[in-house]
Automatic annotation (TrEMBL):
This is Septation ring formation regulator EzrA. Residues 1-17 are extracellular. The gene is ezrA. It comes from Liquorilactobacillus mali KCTC 3596 = DSM 20444. It is found in: Cell membrane. The lineage of its organism: Bacteria, Bacillati, Bacillota, Bacilli, Lactobacillales. The chain crosses the membrane at residues 14-36.
């Protein structure tokens, strides 16, 4: 019984849960349907408002105001196309969208939410396209109005420009010379184009009038430029250049009469400039303005070059004549130096050999100087005969001649300095040879004072070789014509050999003197030390038989130091101290 009661309670609880779930689902479903219905209704209302705004747009008034503008041709075609597209949208497409929205209201009330959502998305695209068309229509209408205003403005501006151009041509036609006929012809063409533009604009065909406007602006700009450019060009060919040519010709004739010469054929050049002036008059008459500018620049350049050349010749003459006196003295001074140099070279060449092309270089300088002297003589002859002189060329030549003269005098001095030392060098060489002879005889006397038993063959050969060098030097210096370069080289070699001989001689004197002292000193040890006696005998043999004084000294010095350390150093110091004292006295 109790078990049955428990089962009943469980069944009741389960039923309660199920009923609660059903209620919750029902409530959620109710609110979901309500939410979707409200959302769709809101979007439908917004789209109705968009349709109403498009229908009530100000585009209608703008179309009506634009229709009042006189349009024709391509402009009218474009306007009609724009208007028809807009009216089709207002009268057909928007009513269809409104009707469709009413149907969606009914479908939404019957809970066909997914269908409504799908259709609303499709209407979004249609309304977006309708908004774009409205915006484009406004822009196109504004463009038509703006074009109208712009063309009116342009018409007034171009008319004013035309009137100004016409006044300028009438008031200043004398400033345009041969160009006036073409300018008036072009003005007439602009007037014709302007009339066509005005007619097309008045008819409202702004597309076509825009193309005419481009042509009109170009023609007007060209005429404005011509009116600006031509007067100065015409003034140049009419007044400025002819006056300048007259001035150049008068200056040229006057300077030619004053013996001026020129590199340019002025008669021919003046004729060429006059031809260019005539050509430019034709260019102006045909309105060939680019060619006229180029020709004008060429004429101006040719005239400026002519002025520059005339002025250059005047300045050059002043400079040449101003420097001529100094230049003549410079040439004379260089010639004087040259004569003295050649005389001195001839004199010295009798007694000395030239080893540095002094004579050849001097002769070349003489030839260079003769060229300058001849050029100077030619100039002086022209002045004397009143011949024409191109002073700019003479000035350039004179500058180069001065540079050449400076180089000539510098080389003259260099050659002179190089040979002037020959006599002094010879006297110094004689003195050196006398000193060499004195030195070698002094060495011989110093050796003879020692009464040595003899001298080695090596030393004697070297002694006689150095003596022969000194004799050879003396012989070369006694010749009628001597080569101081060779003698200088021999002096250097002989001095070097004499220094070596002096060292050898001093070695023999010192070695022999020290050996004799050590042999005497060693006698005190001969009886006590047999090795001393034996070394002494060998040293005597080297000294008296072989004349090897250095070897003899080394042998006895070594033996003595063995029995008495420092003995050799003591004897050596005493010897050199005594030698220095004797030499200083």
């Amino acid at each position: 019984m109790g078990k049955q009661k428990v089962d009943i309670h469980r069944s009741e609880d389960l039923m309660t849960l199920v009923l609660s779930a059903i209620v919750i689902v029902a409530v959620v479903a109710y609110f979901s349907f309500f939410y979707l219905q409200r959302k769709n209704s809101s979007e439908i209302a917004m789209k109705k408002e968009q349709v109403n705004n498009l229908v009530g747009s100000s585009v209608h008034e703008e179309i009506l105001s634009t229709e009042k503008i006189r349009l024709s041709g391509e402009s009218l075609t474009q306007f009609e196309e724009t208007k028809q597209n807009y009216l089709y949208m207002i009268n057909h497409k928007l009513p269809q969208i409104s009707e469709h929205l009413a149907e969606l209201v009914e479908a939404n009330s019957h809970y066909r939410f997914f269908e409504v959502r799908r259709e609303l998305n499709l209407l979004d695209t249609k309304l977006e396209n309708a908004g774009k068309l409205e915006k484009e229509t406004k822009q196109n209408l504004q463009t038509f109005k703006k074009s109208n205003l712009e063309h009116q403005k342009r018409t007034k501006e171009l008319e004013q420009k035309y009137q100004n151009l016409r006044k300028t041509l009438l008031a200043k036609n004398f400033s345009f010379g041969p160009s006036i006929d073409k300018l008036e012809e072009n003005l007439a063409g602009i007037e014709k184009t302007f009339d066509s533009y005005s007619q097309t604009t008045n008819l409202g065909d702004y597309v076509k009038s825009t193309e005419i406007l481009k042509v009109l602006k170009k023609e007007t700009a060209l005429l404005e430029n011509a009116i600006k450019v031509i007067p100065p060009l015409y003034r140049s060919v009419k007044n400025v250049y002819p006056e300048q040519i007259t001035e150049i010709k008068e200056a040229y004739d006057k300077m030619s009469a004053s013996e001026y010469g020129f590199t340019t054929d002025f008669d021919r050049k003046i004729s060429e400039i006059q031809t260019l002036i005539a050509t430019n008059i034709v260019n102006l008459s045909e309105l060939e303005l680019d060619h006229a500018k180029e020709t004008d620049q060429k004429i101006d350049q040719e005239i400026n070059e002519s002025y520059d050349e005339l002025e250059s010749e005047i300045k050059a003459r002043s400079e040449v004549e101003g420097k001529m006196g100094t230049f003549e003295k410079f040439v004379a001074h260089a010639r004087k130096n040259q004569r003295e140099l050649l005389i001195e070279l001839d004199r010295l060449n009798q007694n000395y050999t030239f080893n540095h092309n002094e004579m050849e270089n001097a002769k070349q300088l003489d030839e260079d100087l003769k060229v300058i002297e001849q050029e100077l003589a030619d100039y002086q002859e022209k002045i004397k005969d009143k011949e024409r002189v191109v002073y700019s060329a003479t000035k350039e030549k004179q500058a180069k001649q001065i540079e050449k003269l400076e180089a000539i005098e510098e080389k003259q001095a260099k050659i002179g300095d190089s040979v002037q030392t020959l006599w002094n060098d010879e006297q110094e060489a004689h003195e050196a040879v006398r000193q060499f002879d004195f030195d070698i005889h002094s060495m011989k006397r110093d050796l003879e004072k020692l009464n040595l038993p003899g001298l080695s063959k090596e030393y004697l050969d070297y002694f006689y070789a150095v003596n022969a060098e000194i004799d050879d030097l003396a012989d070369k210096l006694d010749q009628v014509k001597i080569d101081m370069d060779e003698i200088t080289k021999l002096l250097i070699d002989t001095q070097s050999d004499l220094d070596v001989l002096n060292e050898k001689t001093n070695d023999i004197i010192d070695s022999a003197s020290l050996t004799e002292r050590l042999l005497q000193y060693a006698n005190r040890y001969r009886l006590r030390y047999p090795e001393i006696a034996q070394s002494s005998d060998k040293a005597y043999h080297l000294f008296n038989q072989s004349y090897d004084y250095a070897g003899s000294l080394e042998l006895i010095a070594t033996a003595v130091d063995k029995v008495e350390s420092g003995a050799y150093k003591k004897i050596e110091d005493e010897y050199y101290a005594n030698k220095t004292s004797t030499t200083s006295k």
